[in-house]
Amino acid sequence: MPYTLRSAEEAEKSLFFRLDGEAAKRHGSIGYLRADFGKSGREFYSTWFDSQPHLKTPGFKEEFDDVINSLRGDGQEPPFASRASLEAFCAAAPGQELTARGGGYSIQAIDFSYYIRCNPSAADYDIYCYAYDNRWLLPELAGKHELPHKCFSTLPSSGEMILITRGERKYTPFSSPATLEEKRRMVDMFNEESGVTRAQEQAMLAGSMLGWTIPAACPWNYEQDGTPRPPKTRPPKEHER
């Protein structure tokens, strides 16, 4: 399918450069592709660098190949057909200005987002494409990786409803004759009305019981349904030129 490059927003500038550590986890960074058109200006030499290898699923690989191939081969003169094509595209549709590092464009699909830095130059790499998993990128951009002031939850040991306040090593219990399933539905309803996600709830629960400085008190360490994320495999160190 065809994909369209759009100029990125000012607030998205950091997504055009490699993220490491907690920043990579918060944003759902998968890795990035570095490519250039060679001396002739019409080759396409590329190298992939992992950020979080466990996010590089078969579904991602298939879509990523589709994105790059679309930009390489669809249309009369797609932007990644050659260095001249990329120069013409950037001149006609300037991206977000990234100082001397080129122009920034993005593609947002359903499951993944791509932030593409274009700087057509025979003296450097022409393209950097950074890939992100929307399960973490979109909550991060929406501010959902911050802890709310308050939220409701249930005690893992008893299913009792509780109210948690950020920063406090305690919680307020609520007695109710409702069943465990009803209490869980009430918690979900109250939190949804306040804009609190399951990941935020689980982080708040961990903070109230174990302390607010531990990794478990960070919302980005959970899946969307509140289950803990898998451990991150440390990638080999690579550095941009």
Largest sheet, in brief, is: 7 strands, antiparallel
The number of helical runs is 6
Secondary structure: helix percent = 25-40%
Given as residue ranges, the uncertain stretches (5+ residues, pLDDT < 50) are 235-241
Strand content: 15-25%
* Tally of strands: 10
CATH class designation of the largest domain: Alpha Beta
Distance between the termini: 32 Å
Question: Mean pLDDT, nearest integer?
Answer: 90
What is the CA-atom radius of gyration, in angstroms?
A: 22 Å
Order of helices and strands: EHEEHHEEEEHEEEHH
CATH architecture of the largest domain: 2-Layer Sandwich
Number of domains: 2
User: What structural class do you assign from the helix and strand content?
Assistant: alpha+beta
Could you name the CATH topology of the largest domain? Beta-Lactamase
Shape: elongated
Give a written overview of the molecule.
By secondary structure, the protein is of the alpha+beta class. It has 2 domains: 6-138, 2-Layer Sandwich (Beta-Lactamase), CATH 3.30.450; 150-221, no CATH class. It has helices at 21-27, 58-73, 83-92, 134-141, 180-193, 198-210, and strands at 6-7, 29-36, 45-50, 96-97, 103-108, 112-118, 127-133, 150-154, 161-165, 171-174. The strands form 2 sheets. Strands 1, 2, 3, 4, 5, 6 and 7 form a 7-stranded antiparallel β-sheet that branches. Strands 8-9-10 form a 3-stranded antiparallel β-sheet. The model is unreliable at 235-241 (pLDDT under 50).
